[in-house]
Specification:
The protein folds into three domains: about 1-40 and about 150-220 and about 320-355, FAD/NAD(P)-binding domain, CATH 3.50.50; about 55-150, no CATH class; about 220-310, 2-Layer Sandwich (D-Amino Acid Oxidase, Chain A, domain 2), CATH 3.30.9. It is about 25% helix and about 30% strand. It contains eight helices and 19 strands. α1 packs parallel to α5 and α1 (about 10-20) crosses α8 (about 345-355). The longest helix is centred in the first third of the chain and has 17 residues, at about 60-75.
Length: about 350
């Protein structure tokens, strides 16, 4: 088959790779350059989504945990296991038993693909392992493992795997102007017919359909996640509650510095995808609540945002589903949602159920 993929983020790239492996001819369109938008603005984690267990998304967590190990095994030059600590304070919004149950389920869902079992620590033990944290009102703590990645380089590694099949045409800096359900694609005043068109443009997937007057059963909830990087070294990661909220944020070692994120702010596709001053302050204050060595805005060496294309499911962005949905309309296949870690599984599902099934 001759297939067009619109969107050069990790989901588009992995779908192109899977289709090329299955002997399809693929043209991959990106209006900028591959991996330059949402997919390179993540929290740099290959993870199952420990906090998704609260939303009962067991299927997604199980799938992501198994895919996490695939990435770590296949591309160790851009990935590695990361130990993450969870402190429990008297004022924590969740009791320690809830974390214990969640971590047990996380290990259970990972099965043989788990990196290592979670651990529990007394207050004294936790202070020994995490001296950079404030110890006042500390009750106890836990640790578990997830994966960490260089998202941009890992994505380009996947691009190179797809290129080896010699069936892939990549058109960067090429905006798709028009599509239809019959498989027609118009770009740069050129019209081309494809057997299938896969709209997997992340946050822009919904807009592409609306611009072409194509109806859809789903609507995206666009949520900006902002991060800051400070010039501090850290040996391990932290899974922390935002003070006074049930929201979780991460403090992670990254390239000999420390990454802090993320926020969850709804925005429109027309808005700039960059952190606001209030988001930067929010993350600094959250960090300073836990850490002995305080930071100020002058310590921020970099900041960035990614726009998550979540399926509209709830008024609370923190509780919005992280599941993905695939919708077929004749020769047009649209993807809504999708996680970095599960991009390979998504690609396999598209190929098996929507391409090879009909070819």
């Amino acid at each position: 088959m001759k297939i067009a993929i619109i969107g050069g983020g990790i989901n588009g790239v992995m779908t192109a790779w899977e289709l090329c492996k299955n002997n399809h001819d693929v043209t991959l369109f990106d209006k900028n350059t591959l991996m330059s938008q949402t997919s390179s603005s993540s929290s740099k984690l290959l993870h199952g989504g420990l906090r998704y267990l609260e939303n009962l998304e067991f299927r997604l967590v199980r799938e992501a945990l198994r895919e996490r190990q695939w990435w770590i095994n296949k591309a160790p030059q851009f990935t590695q296991p990361l130990k993450i600590f969870i402190p429990i304070y008297k004022q924590s919004m969740r009791p320690s038993w809830l974390y214990r149950v969640g971590l047990f389920i996380y290990d259970l869902l990972a099965g043989s693909k788990k990196i290592a079992k979670h651990q529990s620590y007394s207050r004294t033990e936790f202070i020994k392992y995490c001296p950079e944290l404030k110890s006042k009102d500390l009750v106890k703590g836990f640790s578990y493992y997830d994966g960490q990645m260089n998202d941009y380089q890992l994505g380009l590694w996947a691009v190179n795997q797809a290129k080896q099949y010699k069936r892939l045409i990549i058109l960067e800096n090429t905006k798709v102007d028009q599509i239809n359900i019959d498989g027609e694609v118009v770009y740069k005043n050129h019209k081309e017919q494809f057997d299938k068109v896969i709209n997997i443009a992340g946050p822009w997937a919904d807009k592409l359909l609306k611009d072409n007057n194509i109806d859809s059963d789903y609507e995206l909830d666009l949520v900006r996640g902002s991060h800051i990087i400070i010039d501090r070294k850290l040996d391990h990661g932290y899974f922390l509650e935002v003070p006074g909220e049930r929201r979780i944020f991460f403090v992670l070692p990254y390239q000999d510095q420390t990454l802090i994120g993320t926020t969850e702010v709804r925005q429109s596709i027309a808005d700039d995808i960059k952190p606001t001053q209030s988001e930067i302050t929010y993350l600094i204050n959250a960090y300073n609540y836990y850490f002995v060595d305080q930071v100020a805005e002058k310590d921020v060496v970099k900041y960035f945002s990614g726009l998550r294309p979540l399926i509209k499911s709830t008024q609370d962005a923190n509780k919005a589903t992280r599941e993905y949905v695939i919708h077929a309309n004749k020769n047009l296949i649209s993807v809504f949602g999708g996680k970095w870690t599960t991009s390979r599984k998504l690609a396999k599902k598209i190929c098996k159920e929507y391409i090879d099934f009909t070819s």
